[in-house]
Design goal:
Homodimer. GO terms for molecular function: ATP binding; bis(5'-nucleosyl)-tetraphosphatase (asymmetrical) activity; glycine-tRNA ligase activity. It holds the Pfam family tRNA-synt_2b. By secondary structure, the chain is α+β, with helices and mostly antiparallel strands. It folds into 3 domains: 266 residues, Bira Bifunctional Protein, Domain 2 (BirA Bifunctional Protein, domain 2); 106 residues, no CATH class; 109 residues, Rossmann fold, CATH 3.40.50.800. The strands form 7 sheets. Strands 4-10-11-17-14-13-12 form a 7-stranded mixed β-sheet. Strand 13 and strand 14 form a beta hairpin. Helix 5 packs antiparallel against helix 7, helix 5 runs parallel beside helix 8 and helix 11 crosses helix 18.
Length: 532
Protein backbone atom coordinates (compact mmCIF):
# COMPACT_ATOMS: atom_id res chain seq x y z
CA UNK A 1 0.00 0.00 0.00
CA UNK A 2 1.22 3.53 -0.75
CA UNK A 3 2.44 5.78 2.01
CA UNK A 4 0.68 9.02 2.82
CA UNK A 5 1.74 11.92 0.66
CA UNK A 6 -0.50 14.98 0.86
CA UNK A 7 -3.27 15.18 3.48
CA UNK A 8 -6.13 17.63 3.18
CA UNK A 9 -8.45 18.18 6.13
CA UNK A 10 -12.00 19.06 5.12
CA UNK A 11 -11.97 22.46 6.80
CA UNK A 12 -12.44 25.87 5.28
CA UNK A 13 -8.90 27.17 5.34
CA UNK A 14 -5.85 27.66 3.20
CA UNK A 15 -5.47 23.86 3.16
CA UNK A 16 -8.17 23.61 0.52
CA UNK A 17 -8.82 26.72 -1.55
CA UNK A 18 -10.39 24.91 -4.48
CA UNK A 19 -13.48 23.70 -2.62
CA UNK A 20 -16.20 26.08 -1.50
CA UNK A 21 -17.58 26.09 2.04
CA UNK A 22 -20.80 24.50 0.75
CA UNK A 23 -18.92 21.74 -1.10
CA UNK A 24 -16.86 20.88 1.97
CA UNK A 25 -19.93 20.69 4.15
CA UNK A 26 -21.87 18.58 1.63
CA UNK A 27 -18.98 16.12 1.50
CA UNK A 28 -19.07 15.82 5.29
CA UNK A 29 -22.84 15.28 5.38
CA UNK A 30 -22.65 12.73 2.57
CA UNK A 31 -19.91 10.80 4.37
CA UNK A 32 -21.95 10.71 7.58
CA UNK A 33 -24.91 9.13 5.79
CA UNK A 34 -22.97 6.77 3.50
CA UNK A 35 -21.06 5.13 6.35
CA UNK A 36 -23.82 4.94 8.95
CA UNK A 37 -23.03 7.88 11.23
CA UNK A 38 -26.12 10.11 10.78
CA UNK A 39 -29.41 9.76 8.88
CA UNK A 40 -32.21 12.27 8.30
CA UNK A 41 -35.00 11.41 10.74
CA UNK A 42 -38.08 9.68 9.23
CA UNK A 43 -36.38 9.81 5.83
CA UNK A 44 -38.87 7.43 4.17
CA UNK A 45 -41.50 10.13 4.86
CA UNK A 46 -39.22 12.84 3.42
CA UNK A 47 -37.72 13.64 6.80
CA UNK A 48 -38.41 16.17 9.54
CA UNK A 49 -36.64 19.51 9.43
CA UNK A 50 -33.71 19.88 11.84
CA UNK A 51 -34.12 16.37 13.31
CA UNK A 52 -31.57 13.59 12.75
CA UNK A 53 -30.99 9.97 13.77
CA UNK A 54 -27.60 8.55 14.74
CA UNK A 55 -26.70 5.38 12.85
CA UNK A 56 -24.78 2.33 13.95
CA UNK A 57 -21.38 4.05 13.90
CA UNK A 58 -22.71 7.42 14.94
CA UNK A 59 -24.13 6.14 18.20
CA UNK A 60 -20.80 4.49 19.05
CA UNK A 61 -18.87 7.71 18.47
CA UNK A 62 -21.49 9.72 20.36
CA UNK A 63 -21.33 7.38 23.35
CA UNK A 64 -17.52 7.59 23.36
CA UNK A 65 -17.63 11.40 23.34
CA UNK A 66 -20.04 11.34 26.28
CA UNK A 67 -17.83 8.90 28.16
CA UNK A 68 -14.78 11.12 27.57
CA UNK A 69 -16.67 14.12 28.99
CA UNK A 70 -18.20 12.20 31.89
CA UNK A 71 -14.90 10.67 32.99
CA UNK A 72 -13.11 14.02 32.71
CA UNK A 73 -15.69 15.58 35.00
CA UNK A 74 -16.37 12.85 37.56
CA UNK A 75 -13.07 10.94 37.64
CA UNK A 76 -10.63 13.84 37.43
CA UNK A 77 -12.56 15.88 40.00
CA UNK A 78 -13.42 14.15 43.27
CA UNK A 79 -15.88 16.93 44.12
CA UNK A 80 -18.10 16.44 41.06
CA UNK A 81 -20.92 13.89 40.96
CA UNK A 82 -23.59 13.14 38.36
CA UNK A 83 -27.36 12.91 38.14
CA UNK A 84 -29.98 12.12 35.50
CA UNK A 85 -32.99 14.41 35.95
CA UNK A 86 -36.36 13.97 34.22
CA UNK A 87 -37.17 15.79 31.00
CA UNK A 88 -40.59 16.85 32.32
CA UNK A 89 -40.47 19.38 35.15
CA UNK A 90 -43.01 21.42 37.07
CA UNK A 91 -43.97 24.40 34.87
CA UNK A 92 -43.05 26.85 37.64
CA UNK A 93 -39.46 25.73 37.10
CA UNK A 94 -39.38 27.58 33.79
CA UNK A 95 -40.96 30.70 35.25
CA UNK A 96 -38.26 30.79 37.92
CA UNK A 97 -35.49 30.23 35.39
CA UNK A 98 -36.73 33.06 33.16
CA UNK A 99 -37.44 30.84 30.17
CA UNK A 100 -41.17 31.55 30.03
CA UNK A 101 -40.62 35.29 29.77
CA UNK A 102 -37.19 35.64 28.21
CA UNK A 103 -36.21 32.54 26.22
CA UNK A 104 -36.57 34.17 22.83
CA UNK A 105 -34.76 34.59 19.54
CA UNK A 106 -34.98 37.85 17.54
CA UNK A 107 -36.30 36.78 14.13
CA UNK A 108 -36.62 38.66 10.86
CA UNK A 109 -38.17 37.63 7.52
CA UNK A 110 -37.21 38.53 3.99
CA UNK A 111 -40.43 39.28 2.10
CA UNK A 112 -39.04 38.22 -1.28
CA UNK A 113 -37.51 34.83 -0.38
CA UNK A 114 -40.04 34.13 2.41
CA UNK A 115 -37.07 32.92 4.47
CA UNK A 116 -36.73 33.56 8.20
CA UNK A 117 -33.45 34.40 9.94
CA UNK A 118 -32.14 35.16 13.38
CA UNK A 119 -31.41 38.87 13.25
CA UNK A 120 -28.40 38.65 15.56
CA UNK A 121 -26.89 35.85 13.45
CA UNK A 122 -27.19 37.97 10.29
CA UNK A 123 -25.22 40.70 12.05
CA UNK A 124 -22.66 38.24 13.45
CA UNK A 125 -22.10 36.80 9.97
CA UNK A 126 -21.49 40.33 8.66
CA UNK A 127 -18.94 40.84 11.44
CA UNK A 128 -17.29 37.52 10.54
CA UNK A 129 -16.91 38.69 6.92
CA UNK A 130 -15.15 41.86 8.08
CA UNK A 131 -12.82 39.75 10.22
CA UNK A 132 -12.04 37.63 7.16
CA UNK A 133 -11.14 40.79 5.26
CA UNK A 134 -8.67 41.69 7.99
CA UNK A 135 -7.13 38.21 7.82
CA UNK A 136 -6.69 38.57 4.04
CA UNK A 137 -5.00 41.96 4.51
CA UNK A 138 -2.64 40.39 7.05
CA UNK A 139 -1.86 37.46 4.74
CA UNK A 140 -1.08 39.75 1.80
CA UNK A 141 1.22 41.88 3.94
CA UNK A 142 2.96 38.80 5.33
CA UNK A 143 3.78 37.62 1.80
CA UNK A 144 4.96 41.09 0.82
CA UNK A 145 7.29 41.70 3.78
CA UNK A 146 8.47 38.13 4.46
CA UNK A 147 10.39 37.36 7.64
CA UNK A 148 10.50 41.01 8.72
CA UNK A 149 6.68 41.11 8.97
CA UNK A 150 5.12 41.84 12.38
CA UNK A 151 1.42 40.99 12.43
CA UNK A 152 0.86 42.82 15.71
CA UNK A 153 2.40 46.02 14.37
CA UNK A 154 0.53 45.72 11.07
CA UNK A 155 -2.82 45.33 12.80
CA UNK A 156 -2.07 48.35 14.99
CA UNK A 157 -0.99 50.70 12.19
CA UNK A 158 -2.54 49.70 8.84
CA UNK A 159 -5.29 52.12 7.87
CA UNK A 160 -7.51 49.57 6.13
CA UNK A 161 -7.30 47.14 9.06
CA UNK A 162 -8.00 49.89 11.60
CA UNK A 163 -11.03 51.01 9.59
CA UNK A 164 -12.45 47.49 9.41
CA UNK A 165 -11.80 46.87 13.10
CA UNK A 166 -13.51 50.11 14.05
CA UNK A 167 -16.65 49.09 12.15
CA UNK A 168 -16.56 45.66 13.83
CA UNK A 169 -16.24 47.19 17.29
CA UNK A 170 -18.97 49.76 16.68
CA UNK A 171 -21.37 47.16 15.28
CA UNK A 172 -20.67 44.71 18.11
CA UNK A 173 -21.34 47.41 20.68
CA UNK A 174 -24.56 48.52 18.95
CA UNK A 175 -25.86 44.95 18.72
CA UNK A 176 -25.04 44.19 22.35
CA UNK A 177 -26.85 47.32 23.54
CA UNK A 178 -29.91 46.71 21.35
CA UNK A 179 -30.22 43.09 22.44
CA UNK A 180 -29.69 43.94 26.11
CA UNK A 181 -32.33 46.70 25.92
CA UNK A 182 -34.66 44.45 23.88
CA UNK A 183 -34.65 47.21 21.27
CA UNK A 184 -35.88 45.24 18.27
CA UNK A 185 -36.19 48.36 16.10
CA UNK A 186 -32.55 49.06 16.90
CA UNK A 187 -31.56 45.55 15.82
CA UNK A 188 -33.34 45.98 12.50
CA UNK A 189 -31.72 49.38 11.99
CA UNK A 190 -28.28 47.77 12.27
CA UNK A 191 -29.25 45.33 9.49
CA UNK A 192 -30.48 48.24 7.37
CA UNK A 193 -27.40 50.38 8.03
CA UNK A 194 -25.05 47.52 7.16
CA UNK A 195 -27.02 46.87 3.96
CA UNK A 196 -27.26 43.16 4.77
CA UNK A 197 -29.05 41.23 2.04
CA UNK A 198 -30.96 37.96 2.15
CA UNK A 199 -28.61 35.13 1.09
CA UNK A 200 -31.42 33.64 -1.03
CA UNK A 201 -33.12 36.61 -2.73
CA UNK A 202 -30.26 39.07 -2.56
CA UNK A 203 -32.70 41.81 -1.49
CA UNK A 204 -33.02 43.99 1.61
CA UNK A 205 -36.80 43.74 1.81
CA UNK A 206 -36.95 42.93 5.54
CA UNK A 207 -39.84 42.72 7.97
CA UNK A 208 -39.63 44.08 11.50
CA UNK A 209 -37.71 42.04 14.07
CA UNK A 210 -39.84 40.17 16.60
CA UNK A 211 -39.19 37.80 19.48
CA UNK A 212 -40.10 34.11 19.28
CA UNK A 213 -40.17 31.81 22.32
CA UNK A 214 -38.27 28.60 21.71
CA UNK A 215 -39.89 26.23 24.20
CA UNK A 216 -42.05 23.31 23.08
CA UNK A 217 -45.35 23.05 24.95
CA UNK A 218 -47.33 19.90 25.66
CA UNK A 219 -50.18 18.85 27.95
CA UNK A 220 -50.14 16.61 31.00
CA UNK A 221 -53.31 15.28 32.63
CA UNK A 222 -55.89 12.51 32.67
CA UNK A 223 -58.29 14.43 30.42
CA UNK A 224 -58.13 17.31 27.98
CA UNK A 225 -60.18 19.50 30.35
CA UNK A 226 -57.95 18.87 33.34
CA UNK A 227 -54.63 18.91 31.47
CA UNK A 228 -52.03 21.48 32.42
CA UNK A 229 -49.41 23.01 30.17
CA UNK A 230 -45.87 21.77 30.68
CA UNK A 231 -42.72 22.19 28.61
CA UNK A 232 -40.10 19.97 27.07
CA UNK A 233 -36.97 21.20 28.80
CA UNK A 234 -34.92 23.63 26.68
CA UNK A 235 -31.78 22.90 28.74
CA UNK A 236 -30.61 20.36 31.31
CA UNK A 237 -29.28 22.86 33.88
CA UNK A 238 -32.55 23.39 35.77
CA UNK A 239 -32.78 19.70 36.66
CA UNK A 240 -29.47 20.16 38.45
CA UNK A 241 -30.53 23.32 40.28
CA UNK A 242 -33.78 21.92 41.66
CA UNK A 243 -31.82 18.89 42.95
CA UNK A 244 -29.09 20.96 44.61
CA UNK A 245 -30.19 20.22 48.17
CA UNK A 246 -30.95 16.55 47.44
CA UNK A 247 -27.44 15.95 46.12
CA UNK A 248 -25.70 18.13 48.68
CA UNK A 249 -27.34 16.52 51.68
CA UNK A 250 -27.44 12.90 50.50
CA UNK A 251 -23.84 13.07 49.27
CA UNK A 252 -22.58 15.18 52.20
CA UNK A 253 -21.05 17.50 49.64
CA UNK A 254 -19.00 20.49 50.73
CA UNK A 255 -18.70 23.66 48.66
CA UNK A 256 -17.05 23.93 46.20
CA UNK A 257 -18.65 20.97 44.40
CA UNK A 258 -20.25 20.24 41.06
CA UNK A 259 -23.14 18.27 39.60
CA UNK A 260 -22.85 16.90 36.06
CA UNK A 261 -25.57 15.70 33.73
CA UNK A 262 -25.97 14.44 30.18
CA UNK A 263 -29.43 14.59 28.66
CA UNK A 264 -31.81 15.57 25.88
CA UNK A 265 -33.12 19.12 25.46
CA UNK A 266 -35.60 20.59 22.99
CA UNK A 267 -35.86 23.97 21.29
CA UNK A 268 -38.24 25.07 18.57
CA UNK A 269 -35.46 26.43 16.39
CA UNK A 270 -37.13 28.25 13.52
CA UNK A 271 -33.90 28.76 11.59
CA UNK A 272 -32.21 25.47 12.41
CA UNK A 273 -29.47 24.78 9.86
CA UNK A 274 -25.91 23.62 9.28
CA UNK A 275 -26.72 19.94 9.67
CA UNK A 276 -26.56 18.85 13.34
CA UNK A 277 -25.05 22.13 14.51
CA UNK A 278 -28.47 23.53 15.41
CA UNK A 279 -31.32 21.09 15.95
CA UNK A 280 -34.73 20.96 17.58
CA UNK A 281 -33.88 17.84 19.61
CA UNK A 282 -30.35 17.69 20.89
CA UNK A 283 -28.21 16.45 23.75
CA UNK A 284 -26.25 18.47 26.28
CA UNK A 285 -23.39 17.76 28.67
CA UNK A 286 -23.60 20.28 31.49
CA UNK A 287 -21.84 20.75 34.80
CA UNK A 288 -22.94 23.26 37.43
CA UNK A 289 -20.20 24.10 39.94
CA UNK A 290 -21.45 25.53 43.24
CA UNK A 291 -19.17 27.97 45.00
CA UNK A 292 -19.05 30.64 47.69
CA UNK A 293 -20.05 34.19 46.63
CA UNK A 294 -17.03 36.26 45.70
CA UNK A 295 -15.04 33.33 44.32
CA UNK A 296 -16.98 32.97 41.06
CA UNK A 297 -14.57 34.78 38.72
CA UNK A 298 -11.61 32.75 39.99
CA UNK A 299 -13.51 29.52 39.34
CA UNK A 300 -14.76 30.89 36.02
CA UNK A 301 -11.14 31.21 34.85
CA UNK A 302 -10.33 27.75 36.21
CA UNK A 303 -13.10 26.08 34.23
CA UNK A 304 -12.29 28.03 31.07
CA UNK A 305 -8.79 26.58 31.07
CA UNK A 306 -9.85 23.08 32.13
CA UNK A 307 -12.45 22.84 29.37
CA UNK A 308 -10.09 24.19 26.71
CA UNK A 309 -7.53 21.54 27.67
CA UNK A 310 -10.26 18.89 27.32
CA UNK A 311 -10.87 19.98 23.73
CA UNK A 312 -7.23 20.39 22.79
CA UNK A 313 -6.31 16.96 24.23
CA UNK A 314 -8.01 15.44 21.18
CA UNK A 315 -5.14 16.73 19.06
CA UNK A 316 -7.05 18.67 16.40
CA UNK A 317 -4.71 21.68 16.60
CA UNK A 318 -4.72 24.51 19.14
CA UNK A 319 -4.99 27.07 16.34
CA UNK A 320 -8.50 25.85 15.54
CA UNK A 321 -9.88 26.86 18.95
CA UNK A 322 -10.47 30.24 20.52
CA UNK A 323 -12.37 31.90 23.34
CA UNK A 324 -15.14 34.32 22.39
CA UNK A 325 -16.36 36.63 25.15
CA UNK A 326 -20.08 37.39 25.04
CA UNK A 327 -20.97 40.89 23.90
CA UNK A 328 -24.38 40.49 25.53
CA UNK A 329 -24.53 38.71 28.87
CA UNK A 330 -27.52 36.52 29.65
CA UNK A 331 -29.83 37.75 32.37
CA UNK A 332 -28.26 35.39 34.91
CA UNK A 333 -24.54 35.94 34.16
CA UNK A 334 -21.77 38.29 35.26
CA UNK A 335 -19.19 36.69 32.93
CA UNK A 336 -19.57 34.41 29.92
CA UNK A 337 -17.57 33.10 27.00
CA UNK A 338 -17.72 30.42 24.32
CA UNK A 339 -15.10 27.96 23.21
CA UNK A 340 -15.26 28.17 19.43
CA UNK A 341 -13.94 25.67 16.90
CA UNK A 342 -13.13 26.29 13.24
CA UNK A 343 -15.78 24.29 11.38
CA UNK A 344 -15.97 24.16 7.56
CA UNK A 345 -18.34 27.14 7.92
CA UNK A 346 -16.05 29.17 10.20
CA UNK A 347 -15.46 29.55 13.93
CA UNK A 348 -18.59 28.58 15.86
CA UNK A 349 -19.49 27.82 19.46
CA UNK A 350 -19.16 24.28 20.78
CA UNK A 351 -19.17 25.05 24.50
CA UNK A 352 -20.22 27.84 26.82
CA UNK A 353 -18.72 28.74 30.19
CA UNK A 354 -20.87 31.04 32.32
CA UNK A 355 -20.66 32.61 35.74
CA UNK A 356 -24.37 32.42 36.62
CA UNK A 357 -24.09 34.20 40.05
CA UNK A 358 -26.84 33.10 42.49
CA UNK A 359 -29.63 33.76 40.00
CA UNK A 360 -30.81 30.17 39.57
CA UNK A 361 -30.85 28.95 43.16
CA UNK A 362 -32.07 32.34 44.34
CA UNK A 363 -35.00 32.34 41.94
CA UNK A 364 -35.96 28.74 42.70
CA UNK A 365 -35.92 29.64 46.39
CA UNK A 366 -38.21 32.59 45.67
CA UNK A 367 -40.66 30.77 43.36
CA UNK A 368 -40.84 27.53 45.37
CA UNK A 369 -40.98 29.09 48.80
CA UNK A 370 -38.37 26.54 49.95
CA UNK A 371 -35.10 27.59 51.55
CA UNK A 372 -32.23 26.67 49.19
CA UNK A 373 -29.07 27.60 51.05
CA UNK A 374 -25.79 26.07 52.11
CA UNK A 375 -24.47 26.29 55.65
CA UNK A 376 -20.75 26.94 55.51
CA UNK A 377 -19.24 25.46 58.65
CA UNK A 378 -15.93 27.25 58.11
CA UNK A 379 -17.58 30.66 57.80
CA UNK A 380 -20.36 29.88 60.24
CA UNK A 381 -23.02 31.28 57.93
CA UNK A 382 -25.65 30.26 55.41
CA UNK A 383 -25.82 31.59 51.87
CA UNK A 384 -27.24 30.91 48.42
CA UNK A 385 -24.29 29.49 46.45
CA UNK A 386 -23.02 31.06 43.26
CA UNK A 387 -22.60 28.87 40.17
CA UNK A 388 -20.12 28.48 37.32
CA UNK A 389 -21.51 26.45 34.43
CA UNK A 390 -19.86 24.53 31.64
CA UNK A 391 -22.29 23.52 28.90
CA UNK A 392 -21.40 21.63 25.73
CA UNK A 393 -23.61 20.24 22.99
CA UNK A 394 -23.00 16.55 22.31
CA UNK A 395 -24.15 16.95 18.71
CA UNK A 396 -21.92 19.96 18.08
CA UNK A 397 -19.02 18.08 19.60
CA UNK A 398 -19.83 15.16 17.31
CA UNK A 399 -19.78 17.51 14.33
CA UNK A 400 -16.49 18.99 15.51
CA UNK A 401 -14.87 15.55 15.71
CA UNK A 402 -16.12 14.60 12.25
CA UNK A 403 -15.06 17.94 10.75
CA UNK A 404 -11.59 17.71 12.24
CA UNK A 405 -11.08 14.05 11.37
CA UNK A 406 -12.34 13.71 7.81
CA UNK A 407 -9.41 13.91 5.38
CA UNK A 408 -8.69 13.23 1.76
CA UNK A 409 -5.16 12.01 1.20
CA UNK A 410 -3.12 11.58 -1.94
CA UNK A 411 -0.64 8.78 -1.45
CA UNK A 412 2.90 8.62 -2.74
CA UNK A 413 1.93 5.97 -5.26
CA UNK A 414 -0.71 8.28 -6.76
CA UNK A 415 -3.70 6.58 -5.15
CA UNK A 416 -6.20 8.47 -3.01
CA UNK A 417 -7.97 7.55 0.17
CA UNK A 418 -10.60 9.07 2.46
CA UNK A 419 -9.77 8.63 6.11
CA UNK A 420 -11.46 9.55 9.39
CA UNK A 421 -8.53 10.25 11.70
CA UNK A 422 -10.65 10.08 14.86
CA UNK A 423 -8.55 9.87 18.03
CA UNK A 424 -8.29 6.17 18.86
CA UNK A 425 -9.87 6.37 22.36
CA UNK A 426 -13.15 7.71 20.95
CA UNK A 427 -13.18 5.93 17.57
CA UNK A 428 -16.45 4.01 17.03
CA UNK A 429 -14.67 0.81 15.97
CA UNK A 430 -11.33 0.13 17.62
CA UNK A 431 -10.09 -2.78 15.52
CA UNK A 432 -11.04 -4.71 12.39
CA UNK A 433 -9.90 -8.32 12.03
CA UNK A 434 -9.45 -9.40 8.42
CA UNK A 435 -8.66 -12.92 7.19
CA UNK A 436 -6.64 -12.66 3.97
CA UNK A 437 -8.81 -15.34 2.33
CA UNK A 438 -12.09 -17.05 3.28
CA UNK A 439 -10.58 -20.53 3.68
CA UNK A 440 -7.73 -22.61 5.08
CA UNK A 441 -8.70 -21.86 8.69
CA UNK A 442 -8.00 -18.12 8.45
CA UNK A 443 -11.61 -17.05 9.23
CA UNK A 444 -11.65 -19.30 12.28
CA UNK A 445 -8.43 -17.77 13.61
CA UNK A 446 -9.81 -14.27 12.96
CA UNK A 447 -12.97 -15.09 14.88
CA UNK A 448 -10.91 -16.41 17.79
CA UNK A 449 -8.99 -13.11 17.97
CA UNK A 450 -12.23 -11.11 17.93
CA UNK A 451 -13.65 -13.31 20.69
CA UNK A 452 -10.63 -12.37 22.80
CA UNK A 453 -10.88 -8.62 22.10
CA UNK A 454 -14.64 -8.01 22.06
CA UNK A 455 -15.02 -7.87 25.84
CA UNK A 456 -13.04 -4.61 25.92
CA UNK A 457 -13.32 -3.15 22.40
CA UNK A 458 -15.83 -2.69 19.62
CA UNK A 459 -14.50 -4.93 16.83
CA UNK A 460 -15.46 -5.66 13.23
CA UNK A 461 -14.94 -8.78 11.15
CA UNK A 462 -14.67 -8.36 7.36
CA UNK A 463 -13.82 -10.97 4.74
CA UNK A 464 -15.40 -9.42 1.65
CA UNK A 465 -13.35 -7.95 -1.26
CA UNK A 466 -9.60 -7.50 -1.57
CA UNK A 467 -7.57 -6.62 1.48
CA UNK A 468 -6.88 -3.17 0.01
CA UNK A 469 -10.60 -2.37 -0.31
CA UNK A 470 -11.20 -3.59 3.21
CA UNK A 471 -8.46 -1.29 4.50
CA UNK A 472 -10.09 1.63 2.69
CA UNK A 473 -13.48 0.86 4.25
CA UNK A 474 -11.97 0.83 7.71
CA UNK A 475 -10.06 4.08 7.00
CA UNK A 476 -13.34 5.73 6.02
CA UNK A 477 -15.05 4.85 9.31
CA UNK A 478 -12.06 5.76 11.46
CA UNK A 479 -10.89 2.34 12.66
CA UNK A 480 -7.40 2.92 14.10
CA UNK A 481 -6.16 -0.68 13.71
CA UNK A 482 -6.61 -3.52 11.23
CA UNK A 483 -5.35 -7.01 12.04
CA UNK A 484 -4.69 -9.21 9.01
CA UNK A 485 -4.60 -13.00 9.34
CA UNK A 486 -2.61 -14.80 6.65
CA UNK A 487 -1.13 -18.26 6.15
CA UNK A 488 1.98 -17.34 8.12
CA UNK A 489 -0.35 -16.71 11.07
CA UNK A 490 -1.21 -20.40 11.09
CA UNK A 491 2.45 -21.33 11.21
CA UNK A 492 3.96 -18.98 13.78
CA UNK A 493 0.94 -17.40 15.53
CA UNK A 494 1.79 -13.89 14.34
CA UNK A 495 -0.45 -11.30 12.61
CA UNK A 496 0.00 -8.01 10.80
CA UNK A 497 -1.23 -4.86 12.57
CA UNK A 498 -1.90 -1.93 10.23
CA UNK A 499 -1.98 1.58 11.68
CA UNK A 500 -4.66 3.80 10.14
CA UNK A 501 -2.90 7.18 10.23
CA UNK A 502 0.57 6.16 9.02
CA UNK A 503 -0.54 3.07 7.06
CA UNK A 504 2.53 1.30 8.45
CA UNK A 505 2.32 -2.40 9.18
CA UNK A 506 4.10 -4.48 11.81
CA UNK A 507 4.28 -8.18 12.47
CA UNK A 508 3.48 -9.09 16.06
CA UNK A 509 2.63 -12.14 18.11
CA UNK A 510 -1.07 -12.83 18.57
CA UNK A 511 -0.41 -12.79 22.32
CA UNK A 512 0.76 -9.15 22.05
CA UNK A 513 -2.27 -7.86 20.14
CA UNK A 514 -4.52 -7.17 23.14
CA UNK A 515 -1.81 -5.16 24.91
CA UNK A 516 -0.88 -3.06 21.85
CA UNK A 517 -4.48 -2.14 21.06
CA UNK A 518 -5.50 -1.71 24.69
CA UNK A 519 -2.76 0.83 25.36
CA UNK A 520 -3.49 2.84 22.20
CA UNK A 521 -7.26 3.11 22.63
CA UNK A 522 -7.37 3.60 26.39
CA UNK A 523 -9.16 6.77 27.49
CA UNK A 524 -6.46 7.19 30.14
CA UNK A 525 -4.07 8.89 27.74
CA UNK A 526 -6.61 11.61 26.94
CA UNK A 527 -7.53 12.19 30.57
CA UNK A 528 -3.89 12.40 31.66
CA UNK A 529 -3.15 15.12 29.10
CA UNK A 530 -5.93 17.30 30.56
CA UNK A 531 -4.44 17.47 34.05
CA UNK A 532 -0.78 17.84 33.07
Amino acid sequence: MGRVGISVVLRRSNNNKNMTQEELFKKLISHCKEYGFIFPSSEIYDGLAAVYDYGQLGVELKNNIKRYWWDAMTKLNDNIVGIDAAIFMHPRTWEASGHVGAFNDPLIDNRDSKKRYRADVLIEEWIAKQEEKIVKEVEKAAKRFGESFSEEQFRATNGRVLELQQRIDETTERMAKSLTDNDLDGVKQIIVDLEIVCPISGTRNWTDVRQFNLMFETKMGASAEAASTIYLRPETAQGIFVNFLNVQKSGRMKIPFGIAQIGKAFRNEIVARQFIFRMKEFEQMEMQFFIAPGTELEWYEHWKQFRMRWHQALGFGEQHYKFHNHAKLAHYANAACDIEYEFPFGFKEVEGIHSRTDFDLGNHQKFSGKKIQYFDTEKGESYVPFVVETSIGVDRMFLQVMSASLKEEKLENGEERTVLAIPAPIAPVKVAVLPLVKKDGLPEMARAIINDLKFEHNCQYDEKDSIGKRYRRQDAIGTPFCITIDHQSLEDKTVTIRHRDSMTQERVSIDAVAGIIGEAVNMKSLLQSIIK
